[in-house]
Write a structure and sequence with these properties.
With about 240 residues, this protein is α/β, with parallel strands linked by helices. A 6-stranded parallel beta sheet has the order 3-2-1-7-8-9, sandwiched between helices. A hairpin with a 5-residue loop joins strand 4 and strand 5. Helix 7 packs parallel to helix 11. The protein is elongated, with a radius of gyration of 18 Å. Bound molecules: 2'-O-acetyl adenosine-5-diphosphoribose (OAD).
């Protein structure tokens, strides 16, 4: 592993363009539950009951209860060394793009600037009537929060299953992956599309592709480098001299 870390660190330091895809595993060491696996959130909660537009139409109170619970949990956590290392890495690379599936806002809190939040941000709320979107830092927004512009029902500003990604954010993500010399994939099971396809895009366009994850994933076989470890332990090592 030491050799692989050195090789990857050297490639990152010499690169003009680096793209990183992160998932829930990067926030795991902050105490944020991941989605899949034995302790994952989708083990105890059915995503079709909580994270689809159909679930929200059927029972918006239940969906808001879930999101208020997650907002409260997230309001109590801090960034971890994985977030901090990625923020520091950005300052070393001329063109650095961080594509995240995480909605927790922890990358920005850690100081990352060029972030594409392809699954949205849990601290944003959007009106289902007039479309007005704004940030709201309150952990608990109540049973059925209303829009302060038109009084319509608010929804969380995240992308649910059965919804499309913002086309412009996706275009930017594909562009960053296709132009990257190094693509890092950290803390994601890489099963949710289209996010999971970015590593393949980067590889087809010639990038060195590396995975940081304590477990093997469906994409491990296509990786040039697979670093088996926690993101909060491995990512800081990539910055050591
Ligand atoms: P998952 O829960 O599917 O995967 C988390 C990954 O993190 C697993 O591969 C773990 O092995 C790994 N992991 C756990 N602890 C880690 C650590 N300390 N360091 C590094 N890796 C660690 O989460 P995502 O891949 O992010 O989408 O899930 C993708 C999407 O599915 C989410 O954005 C969400 C979810 O349903 C929507 O809600 C639309």
């Amino acid at each position: 592993m030491h050799e692989d870390i050195r090789r990857l660190a050297d490639r990152i330091k010499g690169a003009d363009r680096v793209c990183v895809l992160t998932g829930a595993g990067v926030s795991a060491e902050s105490g944020v539950p991941t989605f899949r696996g034995p302790q994952g959130m989708w083990k105890n909660h059915d995503p079709t009951e909580l994270a689809t537009p159909q679930a929200f139409s059927r029972d918006p109170k239940l969906v808001w209860e879930f999101y208020n619970w997650r907002r409260t949990l997230l309001s109590e956590v801090q960034c971890n060394p994985a977030h901090t290392a990625l923020a520091a890495m950005e300052s070393l690379v001329p063109h650095f793009t961080l594509v995240t599936q995480n909605v927790d806002g922890l990358h920005r809190k850690a100081g990352s600037a060029n972030i594409i939040e392809i699954h949205g941000n849990i601290w944003n709320v959007r009106c289902t009537s007039c479309g007005h979107e704004r940030q709201d830092p309150s952990p608990n927004l109540g049973e059925l929060p209303c829009c302060d512009v038109c009084g319509g029902l608010l929804r969380p500003g995240v992308v649910w299953f059965n919804e499309s990604l913002d086309p412009e954010l996706w275009r930017q993500s594909v562009e960053a992956a296709s132009r990257a010399e190094v693509m890092l994939v950290a803390g994601t099971s890489a099963v949710v599309q289209p996010a999971a396809s970015l590593a393949g895009v980067a590889k087809r366009f010639g990038a060195l592709v590396a995975e940081i994850n304590p477990e093997a994933t469906d994409q491990s076989d296509m990786m040039d480098i697979a670093l088996r470890g926690k993101a909060g332990e491995v990512l800081p090592k990539l910055l050591e001299d």
